[in-house]
Amino acid sequence: MEFRFAVGDLATTSFAYSPLQEAVLSLRCLHDPARFPHHRPWLRRIRPGLESLDREMLTALVTPWLWVPDFLTPRPAHARPVFADELDLLRATPPETVVAGFHAAYRTPEALPPVLVRGLTDPEALLVRLTDALDAYWHTCLAADWWPRVQSILEADLAHRGRVLAEQGAGALLSGLDERLSWTGSRLLLSTRDFTARTPWSDVSIDGRGLVLVPTMFARGAQQLIDPAQPPVLMYPARGRATLSEKPPPVNDEALVRLLGRPRARLLRLLAEPASTTELAHRLGVTPGAVSQHLAVLYDAGLLSRTRSGRIVRYTRTRLGDDLCR
Predict the structure, then answer these.
(1) I need a surface site. Which of 14, 76, 235, 247 has the fewest CB within 10 A?
(2) Hey, which residues does 275 pair with through a beta bridge?
(3) CA within 13 Å, CB half, 191
(4) Thinking of the domain 247-325, which architecture would CATH place it in?
(5) CB-hemisphere CA count at 13 Å for 74?
(6) Model confidence over 24-35: pLDDT tens digits?
(7) Start and end of every HTH arsR-type domain (predicted)?
(8) Per-residue confidence band for 108, with pLDDT thresholds at 50, 70 and 90
(9) Which of 181, 150, 174, 88 lies closest to 278, judged by CA?
């Protein structure tokens, strides 16, 4: 599959991540948990909460071959959308789009599960049921514990891609997103040789519409939306997604502990990639206030830098901090 770029299309290519996309794609784990080993600890934790949810509807949102209707993963409007805002947009999906989306994902009417066969006779009511199910799933299983850690990984991915673009250029950036991708100078080629299901995809011309590149925790390779006529989106595996199952690293260098104290040494080890105070507190199981005090000391010592994105401040190690950890 080819993504064809005109002269100005690289200038409108951008990155974004989507909490709604990650919530929907996480349902792939319910179909095939062995395919996503890094999420097994999370799956064990949420199992009691899943029993109170609309499992029949949630499971039906993903096909047996793990396709998802395009309308459930809309192209992010900006780099860091909020789940509630994306869900409001999903609630406004036209009924005919809901029907077409499920038929495209399931490919044949016979493949539709009973809950969708019944639901598609009244797509407006079906949309209400599925958005309510997603909202409950988000707040029960994702928002408090899982999303802060995933958001940290996605932010780190975006920061890494920015460094690659600055140091190596757009060609290295695009071809480095996934081994399925290669850049020829005017075309981005997506190999479909290892796809498990036949796709309806054809070549895509960016044609001034802007290509949005979206990292995800739930893809084993780069993939496009089902409908190539939609505004172009390319999902790719997020860098560092395997760290989701890791426990916070121990501090093995006793010299670093003696110098900084164990809490600050551990924070410095964690901040090889950008993270916010809240994200670090979730990982360490402590209060944000405790983390904030240590971050302020490390920042004042020149071991950390910080950048602001809206109301969120993210910290990462400086070169001095990297040298000290080594």
Answers:
(1) 247
(2) 315
(3) 12
(4) Orthogonal Bundle (1.10)
(5) 18
(6) 999 999 888 888
(7) 255-326
(8) very high
(9) 150
Please check whether residue 29 is in contact with residue 218, taking contact to mean a CB–CB distance below 8 angstroms.
Answer: yes
Outline which parts of the chain fall under CATH 1.10.10.10. 247-325
Pair 15, 213: CB distance under 8 Å: yes
Of the pLDDT bands very low, low, confident and very high (cuts 50, 70, 90), residue 267 is very high
pTM for the model: 0.77
Burial state string for 243-253 with b = 16 or more CB within 10 A and e = fewer than 16: ebeeeeeebee
All residues at 6 or more sequence positions from 144 whose CB lies less than 8 Å from its CB, including other chains: none
Instruction: Give the pair of three-digit tokens for residue 86.
Output: 């994306």
Alpha-carbon gap, residue 187 to 182, rounded angstroms: 8
Helices within the chain (DSSP H only): 19-26, 28-31, 40-50, 55-60, 83-91, 95-106, 114-119, 123-137, 146-168, 170-175, 254-260, 262-270, 277-284, 288-300, 319-325
Contact 73, 86 (CB under 8 A): no
